[in-house]
Structure formats: structure tokens, C-alpha cells
Write a structure and sequence with these properties.
- The radius of gyration is 30 Å and the shape is elongated.
- A seven-stranded mixed β-sheet has the order 3-4-5-2-1-8-9.
- The chain has 24 helices and 15 strands.
- It is α+β, with helices and mostly antiparallel strands.
- It binds adenosine-5'-triphosphate (ATP) and magnesium ion (MG).
């Protein structure tokens, strides 16, 4: 197969010329070739040459012009430069051999074939020649092109060796299966299950990079189910596995919260690309196993799972080495509030309840509403439709209340300063009492979110607290 007419970026012919003058056998390799054949846009290109990748980068940059800034990574023998939003990486072909307890291989110079052998999957081991005699020719020693066409993830060599050498590849296999909607060949998948424990030598950060890519794909449930079936999920996120299963007492069953959560996650992917809102979907019911109770009157209940769940977020993020700043706090808040909008659909919707929800959610109200909408799942389609309809009403009313009262980013209409000046008092508990009462009155709709009404209430309150006005 010749792909020269698909190599449209000028870098390819430039590198072809450099390869000829420098007498360096050179190829495009890996993810870029795979994505080119799948018609997926990709702006990261890896070049491999039989020789020094750093020399190839240097000669290429020289030919392009002095404005190119090359980064050299001497320890790895690689080099990289950017051009616009394109990223070019240069590496010398290498042969790798591994030791049991490390991801770090012993590396030697090698041929193109050696370099292809060390790659993780047949579809990632494709190369295109940039050499004069066969420019554009696909070099495909493992029938990667057939696997691409039939949608199969398979390792080029014995999968037990491939995964044991570098266990991160197990995560990558499942990540690619999810992103590309591919099938992991049975032999390869069985090897993942057999080697799952080796994941222990991989850092949390790298595991999470792959998990996050799964979560950012179109249908993350595919990846979670493969992680579960292979036994990897139990090792990297055991708390999530606890959601599995249903129980029945007196003919009453609760839903399987594992599959429910995956459904919520897939649902929310239709309305957001935000990784952390997707994480909120993953976490929203995480404390259900710990809060599950059964009694004859109420059947199955999970009281307080939103409170305990939001507390668990910190510990889980920490142990998974996920960021602990604003992202984590956002997930906590979503988990904590996730029942509130749904509760509104079940009762008479009062403006006061809506104002309280707006006040607590603040600018995250839209995210919260997306989470709640995604949380409406049931096997019964009529039920889902009815809930969604009521949910629309809540959304509409929320909008009206927000326009009227503007409590989304509530700022107290009278400040502590003003209270102190008016009554000539020093910082004290009375100030907090007055401010809190005003806020409550606004949220309850007793007064409007307005300076004059709040001021009048402050004077009233002062009177009942025995304060005298010293400055009007
Ligand atoms: P993406 O860029 O979407 O993450 P990719 O396949 O390009 O996918 P990269 O991490 O950019 O992944 O790696 C580029 C290439 O390097 C891969 O296509 C593969 O050939 C090789 N590669 C990357 N990681 C590994 C690994 N852990 N084991 C073997 N080969 C790997
Ligand atoms: Mg890549």
C-alpha cells in the first residue's frame, strides 16, 4: 500500500529530503499512521530513523529555518519541536528488553523491525517510509491494517510478554478499545486478566491518565466494563466495584448501582465534555454501599449517601492522585447536591426551594442540573419520560426565579460594616445574626433581594435585639 498522497503536510517531503542527504533511513510511525488510516485528525507525528533521532531533528530544523526551536532529551535520545499546533517527535529506532520489576527497559539501537516489535499493539506498530526508493510505502509486519479494518486490538508479540514488560499497556488496550470502539482479541484480553497484578508497578498518575482518557471518550462505560471484566478495576478503583450487585428482601430489590452509575456517566457524556463533571457522575452514588439499609416500611434506602459520598471524594481523589484543588471541590459539591433538583420534582415546587438551590449551587447550577438529568435512569421508559418532563418544569422555574431574585451569586445587600455603623457597635455576634436573618428572609421570599428592603429589615432586627440607631 502506498500512502504518499495522504502525506500532505510539508514536513513529510522535507524530512524525506533530509533523510536522503543525511543517509538516515526514516519513517513516520505509531499513532499518527493509525489515525491517518482511520481518518481521525491527529497533530502529533512521531518520526523514527535508523540512527540518531536527535541528528534527524537537528538536520530537519536546519532545513526549515532558524526560527525552529528544538528540544533535545539526551537521556532518551529523542528530540521534539513544534510548528503551529503540530508536534513533531524524533527518535532513533530501538530494541528493548525488560526486567521483571521495572517499567524501564534496557535499550539498544535497533532496526525498524526491532522498533516495531517493541510497540504495544499491531495498529500502533504501523510505519510509512519517507525514504527515496519507497516513499509512502506502508510497513506493516503484523497485519495491523487488517486489525484496523476489523476493529481489533492485538499485541504484536506474545501478549503475556508485552503486558508483563510494561503493564501500562493493559490500560492502553482498554483505552483504545473504548476510544475507537474496537474489540480486544480474546488471547490479548485473557493475558490482561492474567497479568492484572503487574499494574502495581505503574504509577497512579500514569494509570489515571489512561483512565481519564477512557472517561473522556464517547461511551466510557465500555472501558469500565472491560476494566471490570479483566479484574483491573478492582485493583485501581475498588470502591467503584463495591457498587456492583442487587439484593432482594421481601420481593423488593434495589437497582445495581454499578450499571446505574455507568448509565449516568454515558448519559452525561451527551451533555458535557468536562472531565470533572464526568467524574461527578462516577462518584455521585459512591457511598450507596455504606449507607444501604432495609426496613419493612421504606424498603431499601441510602440515607445520607450524598453527604458521605462527598466526604469520600477527597480520600478517593487523594489515593488515585487526582488533583485536590478546585476540581476536587467541584466534584464534592456536585455529589453533595445531586439529590436536590430531583427532590424538587417530587413535591410542590416553591420559589423558596428554588432560591435555596440556586444559592447553594451558585455558578455550578447548570452542571448540577446536567448531572441530575443524567441521573434519571430506569428500565421503564414511561417513567423516565415522565420524570424528564417534570425536570424540564423545574429547569424553567429555576430560570424564572433566577431572573427575578438573582440569588445565584448571592451578595448580602447590607454589609457587616453598615450594620456596625448604623448601630455604633463593634464586631459581635449580633452582626452575624442580622445578616443571616436577612439572607434567610430573602431565600424564603419574605423580602426581595434589594437594598431598601434589607435595610428596613436590619432596622427591625436591631430593635428586637435592643440596639439603638446612631447613624442613619
Ligand atoms: P494518543 O496520542 O491518542 O494517546 P498514541 O498511540 O499516539 O495515542 P502515544 O502515547 O502518543 O500514543 O504513543 C505513540 C506511539 O508510541 C504509540 O502509537 C505506540 O506505537 C508507542 N507507544 C506508546 N506507549 C507505548 C507503550 N507503553 N508500549 C509500547 N509502545 C508504546
Ligand atoms: Mg500520540
Amino acid at each position: 500500500m502506498n500512502l504518499s498522497d495522504r502525506l500532505t503536510h510539508p514536513i513529510f517531503s522535507t524530512i524525506g529530503e533530509v533523510a536522503a542527504t543525511e543517509q538516515l533511513e526514516t519513517y513516520v510511525v505509531g499513532g499518527f499512521v493509525r489515525d491517518l488510516l482511520l481518518n481521525r485528525a491527529s497533530k502529533d507525528i512521531d518520526f523514527v530513523c535508523v540512527g540518531s533521532g536527535m541528528d534527524l531533528a537537528k538536520a530537519t530544523a536546519k532545513r526549515i529555518g532558524s526560527h525552529v526551536h528544538v528540544n533535545y532529551f539526551k537521556n532518551f535520545g529523542t528530540a521534539q519541536f513544534r510548528s503551529g499546533d503540530w508536534d513533531f517527535e524524533f527518535v532513533g529506532a530501538r530494541k528493548e528488553s525488560y526486567q521483571r520489576d521495572s517499567r524501564k527497559p534496557i535499550v539498544e539501537d535497533g532496526s525498524l523491525q526491532d522498533d516495531q516489535n517493541r510497540r504495544d499493539f499491531t495498529i500502533n506498530a504501523l510505519a510509512i517510509s519517507l525514504n527515496k526508493n519507497d516513499y509512502g510505502t506502508l510497513v506493516d509486519p503484523f497485519q495491523g491494517i487488517e486489525d484496523l479494518e476489523s476493529g481489533i486490538i492485538r499485541t504484536p508479540l506474545d501478549p503475556d510478554i508485552t503486558f508483563s514488560d510494561d503493564p501500562l499497556r493493559m490500560m492502553r488496550a482498554i483505552r483504545f478499545a473504548t476510544q475507537l470502539n474496537f474489540y480486544i482479541e480474546a488471547k490479548t484480553f485473557e493475558a490482561i486478566a492474567r497479568n492484572k497484578k503487574r499494574i502495581g508497578i505503574i504509577s497512579r498518575e500514569r494509570i489515571m491518565d489512561e483512565l481519564n482518557k477512557i472517561i473522556l471518550s464517547q461511551k466510557p462505560s465500555v472501558g469500565f466494563i472491560l476494566l471490570d471484566q479483566s479484574g483491573l478495576l478492582e485493583l485501581i478503583f475498588p470502591e467503584f466495584c463495591l457498587l456492583k450487585g442487587t439484593e432482594t428482601v421481601d420481593d423488593k430489590s434495589h437497582k445495581d448501582n454499578f450499571y446505574h452509575t455507568l448509565q449516568v456517566l454515558d448519559n452525561i457524556c451527551q451533555s458535557t465534555k468536562d472531565l470533572w463533571l464526568r467524574w461527578a457522575a462516577i462518584m455521585h452514588d459512591i457511598a450507596k454501599p455504606q449507607t444501604k439499609r432495609f426496613d419493612v416500611r421504606n424498603g431499601w434506602t441510602f440515607h445520607g449517601h450524598e453527604v458521605l459520598g462527598s466526604k469520600m471524594v477527597y480520600r478517593l481523589f487523594k489515593s488515585m492522585k487526582l488533583p485536590l484543588g478546585a476540581e476536587m471541590k467541584f466534584v464534592q459539591k456536585m455529589v453533595y447536591l445531586h439529590l436536590r433538583p430531583i427532590a424538587l420534582t417530587k413535591e410542590e415546587i416553591t420559589d423558596s426551594a428554588l432560591r435555596r438551590l440556586l444559592f447553594e449551587a451558585g455558578d455550578d447550577i447548570d452542571s448540577l442540573m446536567k448531572l441530575c438529568e443524567a441521573d434519571i435512569t430506569s428500565k421503564n421508559k414511561v417513567k423516565v419520560a415522565r420524570y424528564l418532563q417534570r425536570f424540564e418544569t423545574v429547569k424553567q422555574k429555576l430560570k424564572e426565579v433566577e431572573e427575578k431574585d438573582q440569588v445565584r451569586n448571592f451578595q448580602p445587600p447590607v454589609s457587616g460594616e453598615l450594620i456596625m455603623q448604623t448601630f455604633g457597635i463593634k464586631p459581635s455576634a449580633a452582626i452575624g445574626t442580622i445578616k443571616e436573618a436577612i439572607k434567610e428572609a430573602i431565600l424564603d421570599g419574605k423580602i426581595r433581594n434589594d437594598y431598601n428592603e434589607a435595610y428596613a429589615m436590619m432596622l427591625e432586627m436591631g430593635k428586637t435585639l435592643g440596639l439603638t440607631v446612631v447613624k442613619q
